[in-house]
Amino acid sequence: xxxxxxxxxxxxxxxxxxxxxxxxxxxxxxxxxxxxxxxxxxxxxxxxxxxxxxxxxxxxxxxxxxxxxxxxxxxxxxxxxxxxxxxxxxxxxxxxxxxxxxxxxxxxxxxxxxxxxxxxxxxxxxxxxxxxxxxxxxxxxxxxxxxxx
Length: 149
Hints:
Elements: E1 8-12, E2 18-22, H1 25-35, H2 39-47, H3 51-62, H4 71-96, H5 98-110
Antiparallel strand pairs: 1-2
């Protein structure tokens, strides 16, 4: 049984059977090893339509509950049920990373008050501003070499 709180999603492929997809550490490592690429690269490539990346991610997502599933099995499932699988993979990824999404939204919210690159300089003055002297005005320097007397 899929547990959405653990990043698991049920996938019903009719006569083929029911599967539970999960994105945990085991899934991420299995996907990386299947494609010989880091998971961030795989996710980016899958979003851009690279089928090899999607295959590796689907393979990894099956390993927690269906370790007997081979890459060849994954290819057959994708050939017949590609759209259904793509939808389930999207749901699984969303369910597995809610904390990351919340953290990203929190960071975006904090940037409103003092976004990067808009901070003041070391002195506290706005960047590019001209410093103003405080206290009494200075006397002009004299041109004579002898001390005043």
